[in-house]
Design the sequence.
DNA sequence: TTCTTTTGCTAAAACGCTTGATCAGTCGAT
DNA sequence: ATCGACTGATCAAGCGTTTTAGCAAAAGAA
């Protein structure tokens, strides 16, 4: 004989979670008891199972109980059953170092949430032990996969434990294992866009202050510069390519050399160099963009948008990198050639290049 | 197709995890079977239970099996049993917006890891729906507690769901619920330190360009300025306090007014204003620190360290904020007065203030 | 009426782990 | 010999869900 005790109307204010003080959180069982049904039924109601047959009246009663008790499902238990968690891991080597990593996180999170995943983040700041621990932690939480990201675009080794999981390299790539999925910014296209801004400004003699540090960006941005010139029918002049350390001091220090080149425009490897160059040019009594037009690269908000004049530049698509990384991980997107997926670096035009009026 | 990539070197190299292809991860049971013991024993070995009595030989056998099979504990199952997860949630309203949030994350993570916790991060970018979902997600994962952080120091409302968990406000505070634990930067001390840098530089007439935006920082930094002057026996002159919008343009725009005040030094509400002011002063043919000494606030790395000359400033202790937040959450630290814990803002001296030689 | 569906719901087995209770031997001490 | 105290390990319950198989009652078909 089954005693179907229906819950005899909880005398509390209707619709308001009652939740007395309790040591332990409300469980499915308790909801079931309150609603006078089995846990199975509650589970079915909660998950809105399509082919479950539940009377509307029952469904209602369960939902009331849930609200009444302020029930929260226990994600651990859920994941235990399903065998796989709703986590995507993101290991980053420089959340703290730059404003950039934040955008990768942001993009990854937005996209992850869109697909019902939460982000488990670990910031390694380049510490390999930390990194190993971080990956181990993620594996223990049975993440759906791991996004391994670097704060600047570069080749990287794939930590061996990473292979125990599905993973995607974000803002980096592995020369050793070319089959590893990766998503990176399209440096060459970016370099071309940057140069194009100047070409559209009517400039013909355009210098490029490249970085001294070897990196995919160094080669890519130069290639883009050359491609843009070529497309415009301007012969490439190696003398117009300088090199300097990629920070403000580097840009500043390159001023003298630059001025010997008699150019009307400069494309800097990054915004920080452009910022330094601004100082250098100003000290030489030159105005921007009147005497010399300048474009940067990175669109580092704090700098680019607020220099005097505001700097035209090309955006590093960190947000998209993060988002695309998640999509790749989930198998929703793949690089055409099976290797690294390249994300566009969109131009951001500001006042450091004058608009070209007529021919 | 998966196998090759995921399991390199499957040949029976001794001591190396063998891990054949399997749909499901290795479980405790399997380790137990491999070692010829019960799961209980394996569990005891793994967790190095102090009062467990296990023969060395057995322990050895278990450890071998673990290594052999490449076993990884399932954190979900573990947490299910223990009832509480090893997560600390961090909801931030601006990971992407500023370089600052990154430091909060960094500090929180370092401290969390130190105590065996992993960080579950949600970036809301100020979106309240997202925020609600984020908190719900964290509650479902039964986080140990939640750090609710803002990217700039400000009063905030405590979302009601947040109260379902242990929480600490980081870089913000709740006027409505003064009992809520919080950790914030010591703006007044920071303002005093900033002013002190100038005082030590021998300056007596020091202007303060405050922000126009109401915020704890506005009041605190001003209070610190006044306190420093008072301590130095200099009467406070309201005419020396200007106000401008707290960005480069604001600082630049304040130049003219500033120059009417005939001061030898300026303390800016933040580094961005200082950066703008640099431009303004330069345009007026004034040199830093020769003609006018400048200090900022925030120690925004990209700017402060690389202006010409590098900017003396005061550091916003974001890393410490995050770390202290975690400690508070875990009950390892508390504010003396039971309200908000104030973290010191350390001075960072660079070249924008000349060293004072003798009296 | 009797048989077959359909409807609404429940029982119970997992999921992978921890842990208190237990138990079979061993060893000294009486 | 007998007893207690260890030692080394196992049993089994339980953590909060999901989910498949199945059951009783109601509804339709004959």
Sequence:
């Amino acid at each position: 004989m089954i005693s179907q005790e229906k819950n005899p109307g909880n005398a509390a204010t209707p619709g308001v979670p009652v939740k007395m003080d309790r040591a332990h959180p409300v469980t499915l069982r308790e909801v079931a008891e309150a609603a006078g049904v089995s846990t199975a039924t509650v589970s079915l109601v909660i998950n809105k199972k399509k082919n479950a047959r539940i009377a509307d009246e029952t469904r209602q009663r369960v939902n009331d109980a849930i609200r009444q008790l302020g029930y929260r499902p226990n994600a651990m238990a859920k994941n235990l059953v399903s065998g796989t968690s709703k986590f995507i891991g993101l290991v980053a080597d420089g959340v703290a170092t730059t404003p950039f990593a934040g955008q990768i996180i942001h993009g990854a999170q937005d996209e992850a949430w869109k697909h019902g995943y939460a982000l488990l983040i670990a910031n390694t700041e380049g510490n390999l032990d930390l990194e190993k621990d971080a990956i181990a932690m993620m594996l223990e939480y049975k993440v759906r996969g791991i996004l391994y990201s670097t704060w600047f675009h570069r080749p990287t080794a794939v930590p061996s434990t990473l292979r125990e999981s599905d993973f995607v390299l974000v803002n980096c790539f592995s020369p050793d294992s070319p089959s590893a999925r990766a998503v990176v910014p399209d440096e060459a296209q970016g370099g071309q866009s940057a140069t194009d801004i100047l070409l559209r400004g009517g400039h013909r003699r355009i210098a490029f202050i490249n970085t001294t540090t070897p990196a995919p960006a160094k080669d890519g941005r130069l290639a883009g510069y050359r491609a843009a010139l070529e497309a415009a029918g301007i012969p490439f002049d190696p003398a117009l390519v300088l090199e300097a350390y990629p920070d403000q001091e580097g840009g500043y220090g390159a001023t003298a050399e630059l001025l010997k080149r008699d150019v009307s425009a400069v494309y800097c490897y990054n915004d920080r160099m452009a910022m330094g160059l601004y100082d250098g040019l100003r000290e030489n009594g030159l105005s921007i963009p009147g005497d010399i037009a300048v474009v940067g690269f990175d669109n580092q908000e704090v700098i680019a948008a607020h220099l005097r004049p505001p700097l035209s530049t090309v955006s590093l698509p960190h947000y998209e990198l993060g988002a695309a990384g998640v999509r790749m991980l989930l198998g929703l997107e793949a690089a055409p050639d099976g290797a690294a997926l390249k994300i566009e670096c969109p131009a951001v035009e500001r006042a450091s290049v004058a608009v070209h009026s007529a021919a």
